[in-house]
Amino acid sequence: MGIKISFSCFYSMYILCVFLGTQDSAQGRLLLIKKPDPNDAAATARWLVSQNSWGVLNTISTDLGGAPFGNVVSFSDGLPDKGRGVPYFYLTTLDPTARNALKDQRSSLTISEYPIGTCGKRDPENPACAKITLTGKLKLLEGNSKEVEFARSALFTKHPEMEGWPKGHNFQFFKLDIEDIFLIDWFGGPKPLTIDQYLQCNKNEVAAIR
Amino acid sequence: MGIKISFSCFYSMYILCVFLGTQDSAQGRLLLIKKPDPNDAAATARWLVSQNSWGVLNTISTDLGGAPFGNVVSFSDGLPDKGRGVPYFYLTTLDPTARNALKDQRSSLTISEYPIGTCGKRDPENPACAKITLTGKLKLLEGNSKEVEFARSALFTKHPEMEGWPKGHNFQFFKLDIEDIFLIDWFGGPKPLTIDQYLQCNKNEVAAIR
């Protein structure tokens, strides 16, 4: 009986792998969660955010006459394959992005499918090579709340070297409170997607543990 | 004599390759121009711009309350290994970025070394994994000027599928007139770099044809 269950479990995992497929990412790791169907906007959006480890975080630069200032940052929305959709960051005010956000929280995070390595020969600007921009408010997490613990765990798991970054640089945890989602994952313009649809989608997680 | 010259040329190319090194990029092509020394800010900046094919272009979104809106775009600063440093884009007003720029030209282009594939195991936010933000004005190129010809050639060579994009979408050429450069390529904060130093640096080109 025990053997039967084990075999059944092994067989299910095998079928799951064949069904879901495995894809090489640009970073050399295997993606266990296959890119969702482009018609499923919420799942695609969550996949893009949870599979990427970095993006461009945009703020309003007071130093540069109110210009939109993009900065390459690492982020995490949770433990690997257990993302919740809200991006967290580990930033220092030695960098203009954190300074800008403390003066004006308006911000966006932009992520491309291209560096994941699943766009094939498509151009990075081809609409079938997905991209997402989450617009909202970039907020400093203060104190030692549960959310700070979550952010620390989410970030340090995906970005192990962060834990050793210089204490004197005063890195702090920030999060993006999402107010608008711009998603292109196929031809025909941006996909309609509400914040609730995005945050409540658990298909990636379900797919990973099914 | 002819044989001697050919051999000498071949030998020089061989030495050049050994000297410059070849590096695998994330896109699977060989980089013939090695990453410059981080102390050479101008060469590093030009290398980042000429070796990358895409970045995040940020504009001010009137639709989203003046928020900074980043968008994944393809760009080119010239023919392969002959970049001039000024990024050109092929955009349609079906997309918010071009619409935003026609209302407010303030813009920035953000590029990371990470997708080039030369950061090794460094985190994308590690300062030794270089990043650059060019801030300035995003301008529509009108008419059939020599600059439009240059932009077309620069973009369609690096992004061949662009030439076949739907005519009805009214793609147009834009360029970023650079007013400020934010470059991080090592520890110790942003590297001082003027627009003139950046535009007048031809080390990449020299290294390629030396």
Automatic annotation (TrEMBL), chains A, B:
Alphabetized InterPro entries for the sequence: CREG, CREG_beta-barrel, Split_barrel_FMN-bd
Signal peptide positions are 1-28
| Keyword NADP appears in the UniProt entry | no
* Keyword terms of this UniProt record: Glycoprotein, Secreted, Signal
Q: Which SUPFAM superfamilies match?
A: FMN-binding split barrel (SSF50475)
- GO CC terms, sorted: cytoplasm; extracellular region
Tell me the compartments it is located in: Secreted
Location of the CREG-like beta-barrel domain: 36-199
* Predominant cellular place of this UniProt entry's protein: secreted
Q: Which residues cross the membrane?
A: none
Return the Pfam families for the record. Answer: CREG_beta-barrel
PANTHER family for the chain? CELLULAR REPRESSOR OF E1A-STIMULATED GENES, ISOFORM A, CREG1 PROTEIN
Protein family membership: Belongs to the CREG family.
Instruction: Please give the name of this protein.
Output: CREG-like beta-barrel domain-containing protein
Native source species? Jatropha curcas
Q: What phylogenetic lineage does the species belong to?
A: Eukaryota, Viridiplantae, Streptophyta, Embryophyta, Tracheophyta
